[in-house]
Design goal:
The structure holds two protein chains of two kinds. By secondary structure, chain A is of the alpha+beta class. Chain A has one helix and three strands; from the N terminus they run βαββ. Chain B has a single domain, classed as 60s Ribosomal Protein L30, Chain: A (2-Layer Sandwich), CATH 3.30.1330.40. Classes of the chains: A alpha+beta, B alpha+beta.
C-alpha cells in the first residue's frame, strides 16, 4: 500500500503541527515515510 | 511547551531526507509525503545524514533521494557544477547509476541569476554520462532557498526494473517545444508502465492552464492505449 499525502496548513497552523499530523497518520497505518517532498518553511515548531 | 527545532536536529531522528525550503509565500506552505506499508524500506546515508530510501515491490526497485545539497557558491566557481554529481554519487551507493533516474527536482537559490549556468552544468553532466542517448529525466527547477542556504537542493527518483515488462517512456508536451530545443535538458513527462498500473511523472510546467494539462493527459492516454494494444 502506498500513500501520497499532501498537507497544507489551516488557520495559521505551524509546519511542525503539519509534520506531527503526518507522523500520526503514518504510525496509525503502519507506514514508512520514503520522503517528504519538500517542506515550505525555514524552521519547525513542534510540541 | 513549544520550541524551535532545527533541521539538523530533525535529521538526527528521522530515516528519510528532509528538504526544507524557505517560505516567503504563505500561499505555498505545506508538506507532501510518499509513504508505504508492507514493503521493505532501506535508508541511504550520505555524510551520516539520510539522503534517500530504497523501496521495492515485486516489479521494481525505487530509489528516492532528497535534500541533496550542492556546494555553496565561492569565487568564480559555477554554482551548478556539483548538484548533478551529488545525485550521481547517491544512486551508485544503491548499485544504480544515473541512467536509472526518471525524475529530478532542483530548488535553486536565486534561480534567474544563474539558470543559464545551471543548464550548462547539467548538459555537461548528461553528455559525459551518456544520458542524452537514454532517458532524459522529467524535472523541476524552481527558485527556492533551502534551509542550508546552498545554491541548490536536489532530489531524484531512480527506478530499477526487476521484471522484463516494465517500460519507461519519455513523453512530449503537445503545446510546448522540447526543453532540449532551448538549451535545457529534461523530458516534459516520463511514464512508468508496470504490469498492473502506470505512473506519470510530469515536469513542473507552471505556464500551463488546467485545460492544457488535461489535454496533455488525454493525448498521452491515447498514445499509451495505442502502445499497449
Amino acid at each position: 500500500m502506498e500513500y501520497f499525502i499532501t498537507v497544507t496548513p489551516e488557520n495559521g497552523e505551524s509546519p511542525g503541527a503539519l509534520f506531527e499530523k503526518i507522523i500520526e497518520f503514518t504510525n496509525a497505518h503502519n507506514a514508512v515515510i520514503i520522503i517528504p517532498g519538500c517542506i515550505w518553511a525555514a524552521e519547525f515548531l513542534v510540541q | 511547551m513549544k520550541r524551535l527545532v532545527s533541521i539538523t536536529e530533525i535529521c538526527l531522528w528521522v530515516t528519510w531526507p528532509v528538504t526544507c525550503l524557505d517560505n516567503n509565500n504563505p500561499e505555498l506552505s505545506g508538506i507532501y509525503v510518499w509513504a508505504v506499508c508492507g514493503a521493505d524500506v532501506k535508508p541511504i546515508y550520505l555524510n551520516s545524514l539520510p539522503a534517500g530510501n530504497i523501496v521495492e515491490d515485486k516489479y521494481t526497485r525505487f530509489l528516492r533521494l532528497g535534500g541533496v545539497i550542492a556546494e555553496k557558491r565561492k569565487g568564480t566557481k559555477k554554482p551548478g557544477s556539483h548538484g548533478s554529481e551529488s545525485d550521481e554519487n547517491n544512486p551508485s551507493k544503491a548499485e544504480m547509476d544515473f541512467s536509472a533516474v526518471i525524475r529530478t527536482w532542483f530548488y535553486n537559490q536565486d534561480i534567474t541569476a544563474w539558470y543559464g549556468d545551471f543548464n550548462i552544468a547539467r548538459n555537461k553532466f548528461f553528455k559525459e554520462n551518456n544520458i542524452f542517448n537514454g532517458l532524459i529525466p522529467a524535472s523541476t527547477a524552481i527558485g527556492k532557498r533551502g534551509s542550508a542556504n546552498t545554491a541548490v537542493v536536489a532530489g531524484a527518483l531512480a527506478v530499477q526494473s526487476k521484471v522484463k515488462d516494465i517500460k519507461v517512456i519519455p513523453l512530449s508536451s503537445p503545446l510546448q517545444k522540447p526543453a532540449t530545443e532551448y538549451g535545457s535538458s529534461f523530458s516534459r513527462a516520463v511514464e512508468l508502465v508496470m504490469p498492473d498500473h502506470r505512473r506519470l511523472y510530469i515536469s513542473a510546467q507552471p505556464v500551463l492552464s488546467r485545460m492544457e494539462k488535461l489535454l496533455i493527459l488525454m493525448m498521452h492516454q491515447l498514445r499509451l492505449n495505442a502502445l499497449l494494444k
